[in-house]
Amino acid sequence: KLTGLAMPPVITPELVQGRVHLRCSYSPASPEPPVQYRVLWSRLSSPGKRERVHQETTPRAFSYVEMDGANLRLGDTVFCTVTAFRRGTPEQQSLPEDSKGFYAGIKFLPESLEIAEDGKEHVLTVLSTVPIACPGQDDSCKITLQLSTEDLGKSSQVPGPPDIALSACQVDLLPEPCSGSSCAAATVTVTAVTDFAWDGNRVSRISTEPVAPRDLLWRAYTPRDVKV
């Protein structure tokens, strides 16, 4: 067996000529004679099930795939799987190594909130795990997200006054260099509305929608809701 990679492959987001790409990086376990790599890109199509998006064979220690809005969309969790083999003897190959799943899209931190009617403000961070790209747009480059709240309350009840209040109805994500899992971030505060009614635990949700983005990638995307 051929020795595989020094460590599992890693996916990072990158702008290539103004378009959002994902890069899969890996390194050989030892400086052996020339090795080729078979890189398989896949996306999670349903829980536990992956769908193949792209495959290539390359001598380089990296591979790119574009978030084109068709094969790969925002909201997808993407994997790359790398197998090393010797040129001329493809039967001599390493075991395939999987990257961690990379979630491309909007993330909320924390993912859900549990708050009390005590007037306290709770910070909700909205971040994009992919770079904000504005091809052919020189003026202000940003993605504006519209935030809305909905009370799910208890199904038997008629919806009453709102249970939560946000500090803003819109947030702007401005391009910045990617670091950690964030390529752009904004914050909003969430407060429980004090209504002096003993109404037990109630559930609300915060929904997000990109406002009239020019970029096709964002146009067809609705981020996941946040449960409060």
UniProtKB/TrEMBL annotation:
Domain VWDE-like Ig-like positions: 4-104
Keyword Zinc attached: no
InterPro entries: Dev_Signal_Modulators (IPR050969), Ig_VWDE (IPR057885)
GO molecular function terms listed in the Swiss-Prot or TrEMBL record: signaling receptor binding
UniProt superkingdom: Eukaryota
Key words, A-Z: Disulfide bond, Signal
Record has Cell cycle as a keyword: no
Record-linked Pfam families: Ig_VWDE
CC per GO annotation: cell surface; extracellular region
Protein name (record): VWDE protein
